[in-house]
Specification:
Elements lengths: L1 H11 L14 E2 L6 H4 L1 E5 L1 H8 L9 E5 L3 E8 L13 E11 L7 E4 L3 E8 L2 E7 L8 E6 L1
Antiparallel strand pairs: 1-7, 2-3, 2-9, 3-4, 4-5, 5-6, 6-7, 7-8, 8-9
Length: 148
Amino acid sequence: MKLLHLLAIICFTGCHPLFCNWGLGYEQLTTRPANEEIIGKYQLTEKSIDFLEDRDFTADEYSLTLSDGGQFKFKNGPDLIFNSWGTTSQTLLDKQGKWSVSCGDSYDCVIELEGICVVPLAEKDGNLAILITIGDGDECNGIVYEKK
């Protein structure tokens, strides 16, 4: 009984939970897709929009477009994704820059949105997705842009 109690304490007393539900069902890619598959328009999932609305964000459209030639553009990007602390003044921003995807032997595929984040490139139900953690990862907050 003491051993079981000790194992429960070890497993459930960390800063980080075993999983974060905002990213459930997404599998990080291990092989880089062709650029033709990656480029296109990504939109926030309904769950991500609900997360933002709970934080007083409202917009008709939230999108991230990845263009050929390595350019990205956020339309109505919530300001809390543009800083590592996840702080916000409830501002929606249009930002642009360069993107790139890399996959390595010691790590799965990530997408870099230059000057903003390096995050997993994932897939769910055949749709590519970009999973962006909001603030401290231990708080388990994030949003997902899915390719439509």
